């Protein structure tokens, strides 16, 4: 069937693999899955934070004796590491019903950002989910079980706001990849009894640690002391305009139940209507031969605000 309901994936005894699991949306997904009695593989590069998150997830597990709650330190930009992980998950008759390619980094810069930074951002944000799919999807197909793949994209990969071009590129490429993946899976569902489905999670403003971790890395690179309190917002210091990670996961489940591929999250500051108008305007830059990113062009700023 083409309409795999979420109940097919999120069941007691089923297995989830989540990257970027040490904080934010990834950790919230692990909490949700563990509380439903699922086996949870938590993957992150931040070993220390992953250990703290593991304890949190174990506490909400339905039955910690029966459920496998595993923490694995791995770099998603390394295909071999992801393949090694999938071998572990599928060993001894293991399965994967929910693959959440969520790990991401916020660093970057403009069009002349150093190639090292550019490759690092694309390595995590674009290749990370691709590596996850290459390592897991063939095994998920072979298992014959219903499975869901969710990749975490970004509104910045759709409307392309100036400020961090590197990040925008990484998320735009991921959007294209995930759309193509779901098209292939949909064809398999319709023509050859395929049981896999993909979705693109597009969060709004969320109280996560992505900005905090970027600032921490920047301070480290500059040899400066890092002051957590100077960071504008993060999970322990939530901004009122932003959603909490658990709200994003609740919304993801609701939208998946409606059969949605694009899980376009609002937040407390921006409605879905506003998001859709911004996307509409972006696409019309091409259709109407306007300059790129005309929303931020002095000749079009007022026209956009009227729009």
Task: Describe the protein in words.
- The protein is an alpha/beta fold and 307 residues long.
- 47% of the residues lie in helices and 12% in strands.
- It has 11 helices and 7 strands.
- The chain has a 7-stranded parallel sheet, sandwiched between helices.
- Strand 1 (15-19), helix 1 (24-35) and strand 2 form a beta-alpha-beta unit.
- Helix 3 (79-90) runs parallel beside helix 5 (127-143).
- 40% of the residues are buried.
- The mean pLDDT is 92.
Key attributes of the depicted protein:
7 strands; globular; single chain; seven-stranded parallel sheet
Give the C-alpha Rg.
19 Å
Shape: globular
How many beta-strand segments?
7
Head-to-tail CA distance between termini: 40 Å
- pLDDT averaged residue by residue: 92
Structural class assignment: alpha/beta
- The spatial strand order of the largest sheet comes to 3-2-1-4-5-6-7
| Uncertain regions spanning at least 5 consecutive residues | none
What summary fits the major beta sheet? 7 strands, parallel
Helix percentage? 40-55%
What fraction of the residues are assigned to beta strands by DSSP?
Answer: 5-15%
Total helical segments: 11
Order of helices and strands: EHEHEHEHHEHHEHHEHH
């Amino acid at each position: 069937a083409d309409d795999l309901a979420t109940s097919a994936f999120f069941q007691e005894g089923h297995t989830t693999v989540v990257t970027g699991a040490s904080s934010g949306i990834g950790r919230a997904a692990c909490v949700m899955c563990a509380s439903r009695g699922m086996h949870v593989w938590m993957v992150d590069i931040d070993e220390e934070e992953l250990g703290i998150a593991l304890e949190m997830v174990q506490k909400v597990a339905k039955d910690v004796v029966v459920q496998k709650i595993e923490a694995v330190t791995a770099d998603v930009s390394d295909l071999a590491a992801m393949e090694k992980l999938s071998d572990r998950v599928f060993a001894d008759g293991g399965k994967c019903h929910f693959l959440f390619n969520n790990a991401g980094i916020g660093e970057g810069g403009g069009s002349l950002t150093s190639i090292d930074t550019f490759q690092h951002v694309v390595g995590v944000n674009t290749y990370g989910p691709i590596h996850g799919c290459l390592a897991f999807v063939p095994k998920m197909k072979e298992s014959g079980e219903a499975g869901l793949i969710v990749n975490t994209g970004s509104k910045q990969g759709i409307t392309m706001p100036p400020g961090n071009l590197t990040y925008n590129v990484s998320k735009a490429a991921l959007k294209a990849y995930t759309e193509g993946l779901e098209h292939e899976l949909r064809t398999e569902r319709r023509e050859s009894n395929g049981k896999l489905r993909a979705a693109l999670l597009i969060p709004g403003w969320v109280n996560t640690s992505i900005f905090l971790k970027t600032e921490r890395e920047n301070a480290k690179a500059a040899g400066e002391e890092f002051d957590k309190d100077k960071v504008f917002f993060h999970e322990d210091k939530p901004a009122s305009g932003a959603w909490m990670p658990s709200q994003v996961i609740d919304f993801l489940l609701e939208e998946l139940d409606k059969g949605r591929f694009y899980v376009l999250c609002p937040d407390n500051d921006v409605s879905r209507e506003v998001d859709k108008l911004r996307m509409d305007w972006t696409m019309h830059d091409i259709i109407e031969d306007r300059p790129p990113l005309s929303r931020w062009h002095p000749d079009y700023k007022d026209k956009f605000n009227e729009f």
